[in-house]
Amino acid sequence: MRFWNRTLEISLILCIATLANNSCAEEQELFIQQWGLASADRVDDYDPESGHLLTRHQASAVLWDVKTGLALRQYPFNTRNFSARFLQDGRLLLKSSEMVRLLNQQSGDVIRDIDLVKYKYSNYSNILLINDGQPVFVASCGPETIRVWNLETGETLSEFPTEGEISAAKISPDQQFLLAGSGNIGILWNLKTGKIQQRFCSPNRIHTVEFNDDGSKFLTIGSGEFWYTPRVIVWETASVLPLLSIPRTALYASFVNDDILLNYPQGNVELWSLDRHEKAPPKDEWPTYQSSADNRWWVTRNHWRLHVDSKQKTISLHGPLPDSPTIEIPTQTSLFAAANHLPLAFSPSGRWLLTGKSGWGDPGQPSAIWDLKQGELKYHLKNIDYGCFHPTEDKVLLKENELRIMDLTSGKVLQSLQRKKGDSYFEGAFTSAQFSKDGQHVLISTGDWYDGNGGGILIWNLQTGKIERDYARSSKAVIYAGWSSDESKIVAALTTGNDGRAGIDEIRVIDAKTGESLQTRMFPDPGIGVGGVDPLGNLISATVYKWIRNKLTTNGSTRQDTTSLLAIDNLEQSRADLSGQHLFWNVSGSIAGYLPNRGKLSFFDLEKNETLYSRATSFRESPRLLFHPGQLLIAGSPGNPRQSVGTVSDSVGFEQTLTGDLEAELFLFYGSDDWLIKTKSGFVNGSPGGLHRATSRVPGTLQVSNRADFTDSITRPKAVGKTLTQSLSNDLNLKAELQRLPQQDIPSLAPTPKTKPQKYGDPTKRLKEIAEKLKAAGAKIKQAQFSGITYVHLEGHPVTDDLIKNLRWAGKIDRLYLAETGITDRQLDGIGILKDVKRMSLWGNPITDAGLSELTAMWSLEVLDIHDTKITAAGLNQLRLLPGLKTLIIPASINVNDLAPLKTQRPDLELLLR
């Protein structure tokens, strides 16, 4: 009895332990580390307190833990062109040109979206934090309005009139002013009155503005004479006078106490004091810097620097200051992203799958042969963009720059075909290849589709290893060639090439013995695409497109694709046209799948000439889709599920044919031979490095870890293989199964045309109107074909506020004569923002030092005549930072000795007293 009780006790303990383990397992979910910092599009923000880094990867923001090198969460967005940042209280903010999104950092739930399109929004600025951390967003809406939102409530706080699009904005520390950049014009608004406090001119387009801690100064950053010569300029807020121009190639800058922190492209930083003045070097001596994909420096919005060295395989995070500490980030999962690879071919039984790059991909793209039965990668390859399996499934044909036949058991190359000088097919490339039914021959098409140097068709005899037929030569490139059902005919797709598009304009049927052309069908608009011949060898698909002009002309046109099925015998249309593209066949050729629009997959019955069933899909439109021979799975390239944004593939996915569930994903990784297979059931298989990316996460949290015990518990090669080889049983029929399914209401994910932001009116018409206004006011003007009005002489004629305002849009005025026009200090505000003026006269006007301060940023000014005015030496000293100033004509009453600050800064300046 005692023995029985002891046994029962042990059993209960084991049962409780099992339940506890199962409970713990249920608290964990599989989270694949498919991103890499070396593959990021940009690095946006870093939170030193939490150690979280925010990066952009295509159409998603990704949150990282720098201590572990693990990705914590992905936040899909509506575009690839966006930026992201951390906010207080565990929130994130994503912003694009169409939307601002506030979301919960931990759960990823959206808190608020602000649709900017309805405001005729044209650009986006910085995110501002004021008072108690309340986030405020500023954007220019249309050509004449700046709008400020409270992101917590979505409420519009205020609107100000402006000119041009806002490229950067900041609120002063005392919340009194809003500083914004609009092109090369800076604008300072009074937040209480909504009126412009001051305008100023920058020598470059302003892309960043920053205040110092007390708001007494601000800086602007923008590109200089060239993209690699950015300028940092420090200004005094009260007077908007330039205090310092820093002649360094700095991409980012901020205030640190009384110094300026400069971030250079090479990754180093420097503190620059406000009293350090240096003359800019000549244009040809500016340092240039070309970024390298192998050695990249990223700078976050708060000036932390991320360094990724892909060759040394290291990642480090550096603090903002020169003596800041460095954090080394583990690279086991965080260095390289999953690679772009596409499904290329299944073997006849469905055991083997070839994946590789698209024909337009860069060299170095990973490719692979997968043993689906064993649930593992068999061979890791490079740069394969086409291939097919031998009918006996013991060999595979691979196309790169050459054709080679590889043994699937040993991995050895059995035969290869290279293009050699002297061969008739030396020019161009191998564009397609396929085995004959008996496996003894290979049908090959060749052509130089890029330069249009012609092409042809070859038959390679595998028994002799030689080209048996070299015929059907053409002045056009042959992009594809396929056999008819009895292999007596060859159907070929041809292109004139020479435009880099490989747009097909002809399909031709050729006698396989003689090479004689039997049928030809021409297409009037080059640019159609063709699919492969169907499994029965009777049909070929041809996709044409046309542009449909939208009702609103501002919406442009929408591309409409239509796919036709053509009979190989006569190239006549054999079935109904199908909307969309990417036709692919089941193993018997009785059903074709196609994508009528984004996010929708349809199945077409070739016998009844009708669509059987449609469902939602996560597969993208651009790469090919393939039926697994077992018919229960479809291989393709998943995008972000149900998102209306196309993303570059980072996996090959298997969708369940009937339900659309994503059953499995196959990952390859750049920079290594690592691979990983993940299934819907949560089981994985992979290489050691690939399995390291199979991490566990507590659902709804940011708790992610890569514990070995979790990985071991879910690594099940047999379960993976079973998932990848699902097949319809012999007593089931795919057509019957599709017909049993209830029809779905599938929302279209096709992009909806949006009204384009309203720009300023027709520039030619506007320029003509301005010229007429100037002439009516008595001005003499000169115009250039591409520069607009370049010369304006108004001396002796009164000017109005409206006339001065129009000078900004008149063109590149480099000669401006306004003597004795009655212009006032207030009106000089509109003159000081003209960035191209080199010679200007203002003599004989009632202007003072206050008005002269408006001209302190006319960086192109070389000669200025201001005699016979009320300007003093104190006012002239304000011009000391103008880099191009050569001659000043000033009142004779001025004591030259009082111009010491000006002469010290500009010793070569010529002063003429009159």
UniProtKB/TrEMBL annotation:
InterPro entries: LRR_dom_sf (IPR032675), Quinoprotein_ADH-like_sf (IPR011047), WD40/YVTN_repeat-like_dom_sf (IPR015943). Keywords: Repeat, Signal, WD repeat. Residues 1-25 form the signal peptide. Residues 742-762 are annotated as: Disordered. This is Leucine Rich repeats (2 copies). It comes from Gimesia alba.
